[in-house]
Automatic annotation (TrEMBL):
Belongs to the RNase T2 family. It comes from the Eukaryota. SUPFAM superfamilies: Ribonuclease Rh-like. This is Uncharacterized protein. GO terms for biological process: RNA catabolic process. One of its GO terms (molecular function) is ribonuclease T2 activity.
Length: 78
């Protein structure tokens, strides 16, 4: 419920996500289809305490891999 309310509801209007089931089903399908960890690693984006990355770095890596520009944004909580 938490994940749906926090993340899933923003998918309305952009995807055919008319139910909680479809939202999570699509998430699982995308996870099986694309290895985000590998996509990022192949573009030099790896977890580190020394370097930081821009949202555009992530977007470009995804664009190169799957030919689609993702929407990437950063939110900082205080």
């Amino acid at each position: 419920r938490h994940e749906w309310l926090k993340h899933g509801t923003c998918a309305f209007g952009t995807l055919d996500s008319t139910s909680v089931f479809k939202y999570f089903q699509l998430g699982i399908q995308l996870k099986l289809l694309y290895s985000v960890d590998l996509i990022l690693k192949m573009n030099g984006i790896v977890p580190t305490l020394k370097n930081s990355y821009k949202a555009s770095d992530f977007a470009l890596a995804v664009k190169k891999a799957i030919q689609v520009w993702p929407t990437v944004s950063c939110t900082f909580e205080k």
